[in-house]
Amino acid sequence: MTNKRTWAPGVAGGGLAMLLALTACGDAGNGEDDNGGELAGETFTVGSKEFTESYVLGYISALLLEDAGAETVDQTGISGTATVRAALESEEIDLYWDYTGTGWVDILGNTTEDLPDDLYQAVAEADEENGIAWLEPANFENTYRIATTESFASEQGLSTMTEAADYINENPDENGLCAASEFINRDDGLPGLEEAYDVDFDAVELDLNLIYPQVGDSCEFGEVFSTDARIEANDLIVLDDDQDFFVPYEGALTLRQETLDEHPAIEELHQPVSEALTDEVVMELNGRVDTGGEDPRDVAEDWLMEQGFID
């Protein structure tokens, strides 16, 4: 697929616009003008959060839109849920991928207790009042987990979070947890985890990309994402969340309802792609970026072409 990429125009507005300009990648991809796609003549600004999976998902959406004839402006790499969500609500971006657990707790302000039986439906219905649509979730779940090195887990006999909590309570000097700022501060992250397992961690705040190699060095434990290929690459073992604290995090595209109403083709384009995005597929795509050093847009394009979703 041939694709032109140009520098995106500056984002208008106040402090949020400046933050977007600092945190987001500033280039745009343009769909072919002559492909006669159902979105020809339209332009969409595609956002993402700042971690690998979010970049890949953002580029998957951008490439689908471009293949349907649209032009896209690249605003991937926005730091933090609050910022990217504010960008969506204020029309700085038109769409981005988020997670049902994040929507339920971090965006809608619910707790991790008494989860509804159908979390996606509950999130979609509640956020509808805010004018935000959640497309049907993809076939993967990327939830928070706590990991440690295989050697440390073997030496101390740790396989579950309860066993880790018991060990830390007996060895309080070995409670270091490498984690990103967002996990440290959100209710479905460290505060809730400590309460659920009656344990205190000594949080070492790091950039998301630095956590994996630092487990076993700067800290005994680390925050990880369940679909991250760096778990295996860094010889880590994920501890079983035996108290079922962590909320389900199904990936889903979010956009303003008015955008979806005006362009229902967006949902039609994403539906088969979402079905094909399994845990195994997403972990492989993440690994090609994080351990293989490939560009996330290239990874997204290769996969979409291999699956026949774009030409």
UniProtKB/TrEMBL annotation:
GO molecular function terms listed in the Swiss-Prot or TrEMBL record: transmembrane transporter activity
Database matches in InterPro entries? ABC_Gly_betaine_transp_sub-bd
Q: Which UniProt keywords apply?
A: Signal
- Look up keyword Signal and say if it applies: yes
Source organism of this protein record:
Nesterenkonia natronophila
- List where the protein spans the membrane: none
Give a GO cellular-component term: ATP-binding cassette (ABC) transporter complex
- Cleavable signal peptide: 1-23
| Protein name (database record) | Glycine/betaine ABC transporter substrate-binding protein
Q: Where is the ABC-type glycine betaine transport system substrate-binding domain?
A: 44-304
The protein's superkingdom reads Bacteria
